[in-house]
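Sat 14:20. Reprocessing the chain from the morning session after the first attempt stalled halfway. Input below, unchanged.
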Amino acid sequence: MDGLQWITVHQVQVSAGGELTGMPGLMWRVIHHGIWVVYLGVVQAIISPESTGNVAWRTPMAVAATSWFISQTLLFSSKKLSPTIRMASKAVHSSSQSITPSSSPLKVVDSHLHVWASPQEAAEKYPYFPGQEPSIPGDLDFLLKCMSEAGVDCALIVQPINHMFDHSLVTSVLKRQPSKFIGCCLANPAEDGSGLKQLEDLVLKDGYRAVRFNPYLWPSGQKMTNDLGKAMFSKAGELGIPVGIMCMKGLSLHISEIEELCTTYPSTVVLLDHMAFCKPPVNDEEQETFSALLNFSRFPQVYVKFSALFRLSRKPYPYEDTGELLSQAISSYGANRVMWGSDFPYVVPECGYKEAKEAVSLIASQMHVSSSDLEWIMGRTAMQLFQHS
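Finished this time. Tokens:
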């Protein structure tokens, strides 16, 4: 069904009281809505509270039975489930294998970049959205050249505004390079509600692994916490994909929305793009906003992207003033919830793609970030979250 070989290797006993037993060493947590069984962020099965007796779920052969140890990566369901085990195999990428921090070779992962059609591609097949024609190149060939020169192995492609809700160009890239790229689609908050079905189709049919919420695309006067926003946010949790949130006009405008969504739907992972656009604070108001960003770490499902440093820094390359942002993010979130991203192609005219990657190492050295933490930031966090190898 999903291109993987599956074998049944796990069988547990669920008591009438909802207790999960039968797996030595398994760390688990139960809430009244049900149990989500997750391996390194990937939902393998959902057991409803009505299920009792022996239950079993299947695991890709790449995942050894002895490697199941679930603790902080356990996620929870936020809605009533049927009294059966519902497999979430769609959450497992067809080319993915299990990865563990101790044994996998390090891959450098760019957690945030864009790709759009070349002028020729736009004229022939993948038109730009009216008024969003790009002023700089961002085609696949250019991206691959930059990644090769910089030694970047994989990347998360975020659907660009230049193609708005037409995902055909990015989808074509994902199909051409499935081992190198995964996709983050763009949520469509149109009042007709069509965005909810589009989100589901992009994930289940086209294999997208994340969704971006751009609050400035919501209808005028409405917030991400309107009925449709909540429905899409909840759906993302059900589908096992993170929601990336772009706070381009400032985190302070969206703190209450993010808090409400994280509190109401704890099973939905959140990615705060570009450190939620927090610059190194220079006054009390900015310090308060940055403190709010750090305080979001109390939600275990929230991650931050140390990305687009040229947007965060008040100084020229190599953006050394962002070092304190990184240091405090690591202290609050842990390096395993922080990931680097370039914001290609916008970064190219600012400092260059390879230089953007190198800046992180320079900043990490300046702030005495450990080599282990730097490995998480430069790849392991994204690899674990997206199960991409």
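The chain has two domains: 6-91, 109-386.
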